[in-house]
Amino acid sequence: MRVLNHPILGKLEKRRMVKIIVDAKALQAIEGEPIIAALLANGIRVCRRTKKRNEPRFLFCGIGQCTDCVMTVDGIPNVRTCVTPVRDGMQIETQIGSGKWSVQGVEY
Questions:
Q1: CATH number of the domain at 5-99, out of 3.10.20.440, 3.90.1150.10, 3.30.70.330, 3.30.70.140?
Q2: Mean pLDDT of the chain
Q3: pTM, entire model
Q4: Strands 10-11, 5-6: parallel, antiparallel or unpaired by DSSP?
Q5: Are the CB atoms for 19 and 88 separated by under 8 Å?
Q6: How do 10-11 and 91-93 pair as beta strands?
Q7: How far, rounded to the nearest angstrom, does the alpha carbon of residue 7 sit from its chain's CA centroid?
Q8: Residue 24 scores a pLDDT above 90
Q9: Which residues on adjacent β-strands are paired with residue 70?
Q10: What residues pair up with 102 in beta bridges, in sequence order?
Q11: How confident is the model at residue 101, as a pLDDT?
């Protein structure tokens, strides 16, 4: 689901489709759209899970002020997906708690 003709923002510009990897699944996204928009368009509704109760979290504020939409992107935890644009080949993972740093496959 994508908003193709927004009453305020206007029509969605034609952009190239790219591939992103979310939790080991290849998905299509529009280059430059926020990661959260690509997730929504692909039916994904969980970005992270809380550390204490393992509760799902997703989009809340949509402007990068809260941390409900954070995910691990290319090995970097706590990336706010509502304000981070998609680029071809991104590796995105559902985050548990505050996440872990991963450099060349080694977690810290």
A1: 3.10.20.440
A2: 89
A3: 0.84
A4: antiparallel
A5: yes
A6: unpaired
A7: 24
A8: yes
A9: 80
A10: 107
A11: 75
